[in-house]
Amino acid sequence: MKTPLFELLFVVMPIVEIIGDLLEAEEQYIVQQSNCATTYAAGLAAGIASKFPHADVYTPGARAARGTMGGDIPGTIAVLGGAACSVEDDRKLRGVINIFGQFTPGKPRRLRQTTPLEYGSIVAPPDVVDDAAQRMEWFEAGLREIAQLDGLESLAFPFQIGCGLAGGDWRVYHRALDKFSDDMGSRSVQVSLYKLPQASWPCVDCRSMASTSGGQFWKKMWYCNACYKTY
Fold it and tell me: How confident is the model over 80-100, as pLDDT tens digits?
């Protein structure tokens, strides 16, 4: 019996949550959020750059190759390694997709300024605010660009992408990833989230760090024990 067309068009593929090291992921591509301005990697990006040097988006050589010495464009992506990489010699290397989802490193700005945003020698375009709302717009734009890549099979995201050093709200980012995963279902592209075992994560309410013994998941969100008791 043939599957009705409407069922093929509306395949829902929930996110697979994996306890493990993202750097050891077997998915086709690792996806991380990157900023547009720095010349060095930090946090997860430093781990990826150390294990997969070709995937370091922050080196002057990498920026020169992309033609972005004046800073990358927020909302775009860089595919380094993997079949969709623009550098033919790198297509057999580990696939890493970088979403330029923030202009500067660190937490989003809270106040709009009348002067252009600057970071070192990099001056942002006039429309760049780099607040939480704009960062989410850029993240979603990056997801849309990923969805346009040919030959996608599977994607591995870090738990709380955009919410560690970048200070985003995981509830908002998770909703975006849920929608993205559902949208990719029609192409049978699996989306996974990797969480390090025995790690500490920020509580979605109070933002304090809580280890696996000091917090728990509820409705796919991480809460410290004190905040969890209020629900």
Answer: 999 999 888 889 999 999 999
C-alpha distances in angstroms, 52 versus 2, 80, 92, 95? 44, 10, 12, 9
pTM above 0.85, yes or no: no
Q: Which residue has the tokens 């309410």?
A: 205
Pairing outcome for strands 190-195 and 154-158: parallel
Domain of residue 182: give its range. 5-197
**125 and 218 inside one domain:** no
Task: Give yes or no: residues 113 and 170 share one domain.
Answer: yes
Q: Which residues of 103-142 are buried (b: 16+ CB within 10 A; e: fewer)?
A: bbbeebbeeeeeeebebeebebeeebbbebebbbebbbbb
Say if residues 66 and 72 touch (Cβ distance below 8 Å): yes
118-119/122-123 β-pairing: antiparallel
The domain that holds 16 is classified in CATH as 3.40.220.10
Q: Indicate if the alpha-carbon torsion angle 187, 100, 195, 42 is positive or negative.
A: positive
What is the DSSP pairing of strand 201-202 with strand 122-123? unpaired
Same domain, 155 and 220: no
Q: How far apart are CA 93 and CA 220, in angstroms?
A: 33
The residues, ordered by sequence, that sit 6+ positions from 82 with a Cβ below 8 Å of its Cβ are: 28, 29, 91, 93, 94, 95, 96, 97
Q: Say if residue 70 is in the same domain as residue 102.
A: yes
